[in-house]
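Title: Prediction job returns without error message
Component: structure pipeline
Severity: low
Priority: P3
Assignee: unassigned

Description:
Job completed but the reporter wants confirmation the result is attached to the right record. Sequence as submitted:
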Amino acid sequence: MTPSSFLGPRASSDSTGRNVAAVVLKEVDEAGIRDKIIAFCFDTTASNTGLVQGACIRIEQELGRSLLWLACHHHVHEVILKDVFEASLGSSSGPDIGIFKRLRDRWSFVDSSQRETVETSEDLGDFFAINDTASKLKDDALAFLKEALMSKNHPMEDYEELLRLSYLFLGGEGPAKPFRCPGALHQARWMAKAIYCLKLQMLKSQLSLTGREKAGVERVALFVALVYCKQWHEAPISVKAPLNDVLFLEILKTYPDQTVAKAAEQALRRHLWYVSEENAGLAFFDSRIDVEEKKQMVKALDKPASKKELKRLEGKKMTMSSSLSSFVTSKTRSFFQKLNADEGFLAKDPAL
């Protein structure tokens, strides 16, 4: 078996924690790696994460040891976008989203080179001109998006498309080449809500949208381009996860559209997996964190652990004054121990 081997796509007969755990353990045993498992990566559904009947806890019980719980950060952000979308445009009962289906049906009649952006929209131009917070978010987003697009390090076409659409919508320069034709519209497709709302926003003058739909699409498009796209793009970088979650909550506190911000904040507070006492250990490897904060994080390793055995931080315990060192306790040492990492680096000056 190679270090990157894929064990198999075997399906469970149903999605209960019991059956999912049984399928996973069967694959593990067939590969002969039961003693090598140190962590989970999982969608944050109740069938996976339930602390009594969930698949993860059942696997831990079967293995007889505690593992690292590394929630899929993309799935967390998918949940955030879903809640923002529903707060802006309402929920959809079917597998497809009606407004996206209409975009696909009308696609042959639109000219995607004739797009409306922040720079060409009088209303949005005025909005950014008088709102300093929004203007700074736009400048920061454009700088990030330009750099990300130049890197050309995109694992999937959708990832690059989301970056490019966000950049163009905020007024970034780019070729007036046609947008990609809408593909799958079902709600299970990652990034669909982000990508299609950006297209709808830039092409709305060529489409028949109601006033409510136009307002909702604009809300989602602004949220995606200004703050969400960066979070999505950096979601796979595990060492950035703790600080990114803290910074995201800070941004949401002052985000100009508080209806959208509150929906996003509530969703994120339900998924604070990466500022748990254990997973806060990832932040020790984040080069963005300054030396003084890392020194405080090292000191906090002597702080008693919480009496509750929680795999994620309770949302109510995250405040805007929370520093990363406030999440670190003696429990954080188990992060390094489960990885069999030499803790000697903790005694070294982080400035070196």
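Comment from assignee: result matches the submitted record. The chain has a mean pLDDT of 90.
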